[in-house]
Amino acid sequence: xxxxxxxxxxxxxxxxxxxxxxxxxxxxxxxxxxxxxxxxxxxxxxxxxxxxxxxxxxxxxxxxxxxxxxxxxxxxxxxxxxxxxxxxxxxxxxxxxxxxxxxxxxxxxxxxxxxxxxxxxxxxxxxxxx
Length: 130
Fold this sequence. Notes:
There is one protein chain. The protein is an alpha+beta fold. Helices cover 30% and strands 31% of the residues. It is globular, with a radius of gyration of 13 Å. The termini are close together. The mean pLDDT is 92.
């Protein structure tokens, strides 16, 4: 995680964030080209899923497919992204970081935070961290 906090420190701080906002699951950091530069869990997103998500985000498509699940887009501004699965698979939220990376988090199906608000919380937490 060059240019970012130490990986252990980042994971510890993300764990604190998850405690403050229950329902936030795994996180990935992507380049604008969709390359995964960090993931809190190996295999959480495939390289192909990451490229598809970034492409969907920036071409303003109506939905993103992650694995076999479809997440209709609720918001896709350059700074923030939010999509929710209508079949109870949770939501995907994303935000741009100060360094120009893109953070994406899965909000678990039992999470109580609305996706658009989740993207704001993620942005506030991660903006100066990477």
